[in-house]
Specification:
It is built from 5 helices and 11 strands, in the order βαββββββαβαβββαα. It is α+β, with helices and mostly antiparallel strands and 264 residues long. A hairpin with a 5-residue loop joins β5 and β6.
Length: 264
């Protein structure tokens, strides 16, 4: 697959793999205990993920009940695996390389299929949320030095000479309904991924950043294939590399040299 540079100072805040599958019954307490045992070495902490609220009406009135999905976290709380009735979700704030993320997904799939198997794949999504931070950002126009012109050229637009763009956000979809990349981007302040969230992350100083949020996907266009690792691995590699290829087109050589490679 060729060499892919691993930058010493990447802007990646969160990586997420969502493997949607055919809907299954909710995991029983015995299933959850078996999953915890299977994942225990790498993901020993059980911390359910909230996916919403359910309203119950009874004699005492209306009561709220949290809807929870089984989730298992690494001891340093930088990675988690969540099992929904329709998906396996792997998240990490400490991305090292594509192979490491693929191995986390492999563990998650292997455990699920051993204990409470799902029947078929419906969608594979690999998402990379990047908070691009750079020196000397005093206004939106300064991003033209670091972000490729097709995105940052919005800074050059103005209804008149005294009102340049203060900020911008946008979305673009590349590919087909069966495979492609959804790009969300724009100038923002603070954080795209909350440092106070359940997953611990390296926290930069708050301030202006350029969001590059890449959601690369594959959807079976005919029959739903079985939830087998050989199929998933091949599609994961293709999907993740598509996101990598687009990211490389969205930053300038100056950003690579002065920011991403600065620790070398």
């Amino acid at each position: 697959m060729g060499h892919r540079e691993i930058y010493p100072n990447p802007p990646l805040a969160l990586s997420v793999v969502e493997l949607r599958h055919t809907t299954t019954p909710a995991l029983s307490e015995a299933d959850q205990a078996a999953l915890k045992a299977a994942l225990g070495e790498s993901f020993p902490l059980a911390k359910p993920a909230r996916r919403g609220m359910n309203l119950k009406v009874g004699p005492a009135g209306i009561a709220q009940e949290a809807l929870l999905d089984p989730r298992f976290m690494a001891r340093d709380t930088t990675a988690a695996i969540t099992y929904r009735t329709d998906a396996i979700v792997v998240e990490t704030t400490r991305y090292a390389r594509r192979g490491s993320l693929r191995e986390l997904l492999h563990q998650a799939v292997e455990a699920r299929q051993k204990i409470a198997p799902a029947d078929g794949i419906e969608r594979l999504g690999v998402r990379y949320i990047n908070e691009v931070r750079a020196p000397g950002i005093e206004g939106p126009a300064d991003w033209t030095r670091w972000i490729t012109a097709p995105l940052a050229s919005v800074a050059g637009l103005a209804p008149d000479s005294t009102h340049p763009a203060l900020s911008w956000q946008g979305m673009a979809v590349f590919g087909t309904p069966a495979s492609g990349v959804v790009l969300r981007h724009g100038t923002l302040e603070g954080y795209a991924v909350d440092p106070a969230g359940d997953l611990r992350r390296k926290t930069p100083h708050p301030g202006p950043f350029y969001l590059i949020d890449l959601d690369s996907y594959w959807v079976p266009d005919q029959e739903k294939p079985p939830l087998g690792w050989e199929i998933i691995e091949e599609r994961f590699n293709e999907t993740a590399l598509a996101a990598y290829s687009l990211f490389e087109q969205l930053i300038t050589d100056e950003f690579r040299q002065e920011v991403l490679r600065r620790d070398q």
